[in-house]
Each structure stands twice: as C-alpha cells, then as structure tokens.
Backbone:
C-alpha cells in the first residue's frame, strides 16, 4: 500500500508531534509510530522543561546558556545553545497557549523549580528554572500535542515499523516499513521525511528507557550512509530504582531529597560543594559509583540511598505523586518514611544524527544538507547537549528544534519537486521480512540481545577504558555475525514480536558498535564520557565533534570543529 | 519459585475459537506480571503476542485482564495475586481480540478523538504575550484527569460498555473531555459540554464505579463523570435519553 503525504514524521514523541503540528499549518502530515502514538517514551519524562521565565526569581537566557554550555563540558555548539536558551521562554508560552496544564504558583503563573546544573548568575547557586506539571511533565505535553495534532488533521499511523528511507536523486522522498498487525508492507511517499525516533537506551541492561527505544532512526541514518555524531556521550541518570532502572526524577532532589551512602553521609557535598545533590548528572553518577567502589554502598552493595524523608508526605503527594507511587508499587516502600535504593541507569543519548539549527539532516561534516530529510529530538544532534545534557533541557530541545524543523519544512516543501519513489520500494521490505521468517538459523534473538545489554552495562557505562572498549567492540562484532545466523521460531506475520525484535536487535547492535567505536576514539574524559586511562579533559586536541559512519570495510571516524562562542572552556566545578 | 500462568490464546490464522495455555515460569514475588509474560515469550513460546513499552505504568500499552480484573501487566507484581494458584491472563474485555492478548483499540482511540471539537479552539481568543494566569485552585479542578494514560482498562471494566451499550463513549473519553471542560483556560467549554450530551455520551454512565476500581492511575473516574453531569445540569439543559 502506498500512502501520499507532504510530510511524514517517524516517531510520535514530543519532537515528532511538535514538528507535525507545526508543519500541519499548511501541509498534509502523517505521524508513523512503532507503538500507538500516545505510548511514545516522551510520556515518561517527569521533572520539567527548562526556560528562563523568571517566574520565581530573576533569570536570564544568558544564564541558561552558560549553564548548558558548562553542563555540556564545553562540547555543545554555542550558536545552537544560544537559540535554545533564547527561544525557550516563548516555546513555553506557546505550549501554555496550546493548553499544556503546567503547575502554577501563588500568582497564577507557571511554577518553576530547581534542577541539576541550572544556576543563577553564572554558577553562583541553584535557580528555579524548570517549568513542570507535577512529575508528569512529559505526559502533560504529549497529551496536549496529541489532541492538537488530531484537531489539525494530522494522520496517525500506529504500529508501523519503518525499515528504510527512500531516496531519488539523493533526495529523501519517502519511507518503507510494515504493519506490525499484519506483516504487510507500507510505503509512504512524501516531500519531507522527519526522523524523530528517540533514543536507544535498550542497548543497556539497566535503563530508564522503554522497550521501544532501540535506536531505529539512528540505524536508518547509518543505512543512508550518514554519520552519527558524538555517540560516545551516553547519559546515565544517577537515580534509577536499584535493579529496575526506573527513573526517579531529579525533581526529587530539587524538592529537597539528598543522596546518602552506606554510612549515611550526604556525600555530594564533597564532590560539588555549591550545587551538592543538584550537580549535573555525569558528576553525580560518577560520585555514586566512586562511593560504591570505595565500599560505601549501602550494606556494601552496589547502590546508595535517595533520602526523601525530609520532603514530607504532603509535598511528596503534591509535587512528586508519580514517583511516590512507583516506589510504592515496585519496592513496597513509602518514600516519606524509607530511603529509596538507587543506582545510575542509562537514560539519554547526547549524540545522534547531525542536523543544523533548522532541523536539516547534514550529509557530511562540511554541513551539506540532505534534501528532504529532517531530524529532531533525542535521535538528532544539533548539538545543544555536547558531552552531557542538563536535566529539563531535553524537553525544551524537543519543542524548540521540533518547531524549527516544522517551520523549515513549511518554507521548503512547496518549492520542492516530488521525486518519484524508487521501484521495488515495497519489495525491499518484503524480502527482508521473508528472509528472516524463512531463516533456518540457530541463534535466538533474546539470547543475543541479553548478551549485548550485559556487555554494554558492564564495559561501556559511566567509566570506560581502552581495554574494555576494545573487548566490547570485538564482542559486538561477534554478536553481529551471530545475528546473521538468527532463526525465528515464530513464523506468523500477525503481531510477530520475535520478528520485530530481530529487526530491532540489528539496529541496536549497529548503534552499540558506533557508541563503543566513538568512545574508543576519544582519548580524553569529557562530560558523560569518562576514560579511566585518559582521566583528564584535553581541550587542545578534543574540542571537536566525533563523526562515525559505516563503510564497506567497517566503521570510519572523522572529527569536526565545534561552534565556539561567548563562553570559553574553564575548569568545570560546581 | 515457579509461578503458573494460564494465558488466553487466539491465533486468527489458525483458530476458530480461543483457548488457554498454561505456562510455568521461574519468578520472584516482586517481579512484574509483564516480566513473567516476557519470560514466556523469550524462553518458552515466541508466538505469544502482547503489547508493552515503558514497563512502569506510564505509557498505557499493557492493559490486560488479570484474574478477571483490568490491570496493567507492568504495574502488577506476582505477589499482588495468590501465586500458589494459577494466575489468569486474558485480553481486555469489550474490545475485539486481534491475537492472543492484543485487542483492537481503534474504537477506543476513535472515541478519545471524537470528543475533540472539530475546529481547534485553543489557544483562547486572546493570546497574552506570556502565559495565561491560572490559580492553583483552578488548576486543581482538572488535575486528577491529567493522570489518564489512555490504557483502556476502564473500558474493559465498565458494565455499561461490556454488557449494555456498546456505543457508550466510555470513561476515558469523558475524562479527557472533563479535563478541558474544567480547565479555566478553555474557551469552548460549553460546546464540549454539548458534545458530552450526545447519545451514548455522559448520561449513559450508570455509576457502577468499576472504572474507578480498576484505574491503574487511581483516578476518581466516576466522580469526574458525575461532576460533568452536574455541570451540565447547572449550565445547560440536560438531555437524558
């Protein structure tokens, strides 16, 4: 079946919906999602969305910009960060006008709270910059955008798994995939294609990400021979529920929670004397693991405590109801009485598909635009987060750059000729599915996936070194070979999740290889990338972005100078 | 320890009637029912089909009927049930079964969509330069409805939907509309109240409270529906069928 649209957006999270909503002003738009659109992982965002509204105390976009650049360990492109910080307040007002139900302060304005790494007056003290809707900020924004998209006539194609980007004369002119419900191929013909597929946290064993976060859009970009940028920078959120990885928002610490080691010490005072528990995530995650490695985990185990007891029952129910209920459901404890066992959990990819500030996907590091293809959100790298993203900066990134992508599409598509679809578009998908269904291979998807997840968690997390990375790389390449010999025991075409997971695993392995390869290349420590064999930041050699792409002979790396700006690198202390 | 799950199976390619398969899995009391289902699929029977995504009760993918009551598989633990006996796993009631535990949610999402007025009304007529003001009290009037994750558990539990009025718009759709009707910023609340008064709308609810009982987010769904009815009585002519 061939569908005709002006714009197809792959991925129905906040970035995808915002891009779709913007483009729908004057174009026929479809959102394609592997799950039902309302299930996208943006709904799991809890704590807030950053903007210097100044509703609680004096704030300026320059302060937000400074914090973001410093938080990125000076690897972010400052032109992009400037846009993010400047446009953030209006983006919040637009969301409010669309109907997003932000929590309110006594004056009736949008209430704001503290968040990790956000400070007043260039690092002096924590500042209230995070706008929020209790601890359901992502859900609140998603629901509003979903309703708005429906009103604007955006078509939702739920449970369609995209396998290929389609090109004609080097223009992206559509996508091909299949219906998960029936296994039948689906081809979408469009003037503009947007990748908004989110992250790939599921390549790790312990992650806050949902099952759908398997890096599909990143793999589509690799297929199109594009590079991925800065993939070595993987964020580990300091406070995942121990064992499960479910996120306990930084908002818990913003509202007064503190981290304690096995001795009951508030150890963050030693690592970040000014911001303490509200230091950026890379720093807090390393501090937790350092405490644990020194034997100061709780009961000698590999977790610490998040102590919310001082916040009080009422505040917990009002400001943090969702996480209070998670803790009750999964651990059977009341956080107003008992401390929560936490450990770092894989949370977010700073890197992704290189784009410019208008959402265009870049074909090379010289900045050549690939006509017809756009990207926004976690799968994109613009780069505003550099080597480490600050909390609340993800949601604002989705909205600001989702809107910019939507606006450039509106500007550009009318003038763009409609490129014909490549013949055989459907058959590529059919062949791919058939070869998997008919394979007599002996390897099992679930086994290979678990091996990958354990490997990444053990050898490529918060701390890395050359030796373990070399080992991981060899192991991933081995797993890729084994995947060629995969066999499915489920031969059905109807809701065949074994088939889906085999396709996802291929994406996961390819992205994992790029992550490890990129990490091996960067011989310094910066932001979330900490090499114990190169523990120092090295601005002379490494103030540059990593680009890695697939070639017939394997991965190839190159580097791109970053857009510097008003803030020059200084020692990063908090 | 071993946990026994009796699972509803239906393969539209091969079966005329559904049947049940029994699986034994190794699981701890504090593991999720979803974990047990994944163990079945990944270790015993790859053909078992069910939806999942976030696995912590916020995306709404894995609404099922567990021991005869609607629930999210990722939010219920083994220890929430008497695991010395079989735990019965079935698809959500009311909906058509597509395969195994997967139901056709089209009627659900169509209804949620149908409560949206056709013309975008928000933003309100006057757009201030900054945010519109809303007091904490005004915001609290629709806070409960914001918790809805569109999982469909309430549809599977509602006696009106399952037994009496197939066309009933349903608890989640009313809740969605209630969220806008009670939001002080909504310019077209009266129009939305009228939408609620259409046949099979808000008046079809007979207050069985089952939606409230099963709601995975503990939303006081029935109360929200009653508040909507009261608002209609206060501000419009009720059109009870």
Residues:
């Amino acid at each position: 079946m061939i569908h005709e649209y002006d714009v197809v957006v792959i991925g129905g999270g906040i970035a995808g919906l915002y891009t779709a909503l913007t483009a729908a002003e004057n174009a026929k738009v479809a959102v394609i999602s592997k799950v039902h659109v309302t299930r996208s992982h943006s709904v799991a965002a809890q704590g807030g969305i950053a903007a210097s509204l100044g509703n609680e105390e004096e704030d300026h976009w320059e302060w937000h910009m400074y914090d973001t650049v410093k938080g990125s360990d000076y690897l972010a492109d400052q032109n992009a960060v400037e846009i993010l910080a400047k446009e953030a307040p209006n983006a919040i007002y637009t969301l409010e006008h669309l109907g997003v139900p932000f929590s309110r302060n006594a004056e009736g304005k949008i209430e704001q709270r503290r968040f990790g790494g956000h400070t007043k007056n260039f690092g002096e003290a924590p500042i209230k910059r995070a706008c929020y809707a209790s601890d359901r900020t992502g859900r609140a924004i998603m629901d509003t955008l979903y309703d708005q998209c429906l009103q604007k006539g955006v078509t939702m194609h739920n449970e369609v798994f995209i396998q290929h980007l389609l090109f004609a004369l080097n223009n992206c002119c559509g996508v091909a995939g299949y219906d998960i419900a029936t296994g039948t191929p689906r081809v979408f013909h469009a003037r503009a294609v947007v990748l908004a597929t989110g992250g790939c946290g599921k390549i790790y064993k312990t992650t806050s990400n949902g099952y759908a976060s398997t890096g599909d859009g990143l793999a589509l970009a690799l297929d199109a021979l594009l590079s991925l940028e800065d993939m070595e920078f993987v964020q580990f959120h300091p406070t995942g529920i121990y064992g499960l990885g479910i996120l306990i928002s930084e908002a818990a610490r913003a509202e007064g929670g503190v981290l304690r080691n096995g001795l009951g010490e508030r150890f963050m005072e030693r690592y970040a004397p000014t911001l303490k528990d509200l230091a950026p995530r890379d720093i807090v995650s390393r501090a937790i693991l350092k405490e644990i490695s020194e034997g100061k985990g709780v009961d000698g185990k590999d977790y610490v405590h998040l102590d919310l007891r001082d916040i009080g029952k009422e505040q917990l129910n009002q400001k943090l109801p969702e996480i209070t209920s998670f803790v009750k459901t999964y651990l059977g404890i009341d956080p107003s009485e008992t401390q929560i066992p936490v450990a770092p959990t894989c949370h977010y990819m700073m890197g992704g598909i290189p784009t410019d500030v208008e959402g265009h996907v870049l074909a090379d590091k010289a900045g050549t635009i690939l006509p017809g293809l756009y990207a926004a959100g976690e799968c994109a790298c613009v780069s505003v987060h550099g080597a480490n993203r600050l909390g609340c900066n993800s949601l604002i990134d989705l909205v600001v750059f989702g809107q910019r992508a939507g606006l450039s599409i509106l500007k550009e598509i009318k003038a763009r000729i409609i490129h014909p679809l490549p013949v055989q578009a459907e058959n590529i998908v059919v062949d791919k599915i058939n070869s998997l269904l008919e394979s007599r291979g002996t390897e099992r998807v679930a086994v290979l996936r678990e091996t990958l997840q354990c490997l990444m968690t053990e050898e490529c997390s918060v701390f890395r070194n050359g030796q373990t990375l070399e080992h991981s790389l060899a192991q991933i390449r081995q797993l890729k070979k084994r995947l060629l010999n995969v066999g499915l025991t489920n031969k059905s075409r109807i809701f065949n999740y074994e088939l889906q997971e085999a396709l996802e695993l291929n994406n996961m392995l390819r992205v994992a290889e790029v992550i490890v390869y990129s990490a091996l290349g960067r011989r310094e420590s910066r932001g979330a990338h900490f090499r114990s064999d190169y523990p120092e930041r090295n601005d002379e050699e490494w103030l540059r972005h990593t680009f890695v792409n697939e070639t017939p002979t394997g991965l190839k790396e190159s580097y791109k100078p970053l857009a510097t700006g008003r803030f020059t690198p200084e020692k990063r202390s908090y | 320890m071993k946990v026994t799950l009796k699972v509803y199976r239906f393969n539209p390619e091969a079966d005329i009637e559904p049947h049940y398969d029994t699986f034994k899995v190794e699981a701890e009391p504090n593991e999720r029912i979803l974990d047990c289902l994944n163990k079945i699929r990944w270790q015993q029977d790859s053909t078992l089909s069910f939806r999942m995504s976030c696995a912590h009760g916020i995306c709404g993918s894995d609404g099922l009927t567990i021991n005869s009551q609607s629930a999210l598989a990722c939010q219920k633990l083994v220890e929430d049930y008497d695991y010395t006996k079989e735990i019965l796993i079935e698809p959500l009631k009311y909906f058509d079964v597509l395969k195994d535990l997967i139901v056709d949610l089209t009627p659900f999402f169509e209804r949620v969509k149908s409560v949206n007025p056709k013309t975008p009304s928000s933003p309100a007529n006057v757009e201030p330069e900054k945010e519109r003001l809303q007091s904490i009290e005004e915001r609290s009037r629709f806070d409960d409805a914001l918790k809805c994750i569109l999982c469909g558990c309430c549809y599977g539990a509602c006696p009106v939907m399952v037994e009496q009025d197939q066309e009933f718009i349903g608890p989640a759709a009313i809740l969605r509309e209630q969220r806008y009707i009670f939001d002080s910023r909504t310019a077209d609340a009266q129009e939305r109240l009228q939408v609620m008064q259409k046949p099979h709308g808000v008046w079809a609810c007979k207050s069985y409270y089952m939606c409230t009982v099963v709601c995975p987010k503990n939303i006081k769904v029935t109360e929200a529906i009653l508040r909507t009815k009261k608002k209609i009585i206060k501000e419009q002519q009720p059109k009870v069928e």
Observations:
- Chain B has a mean pLDDT of 93.
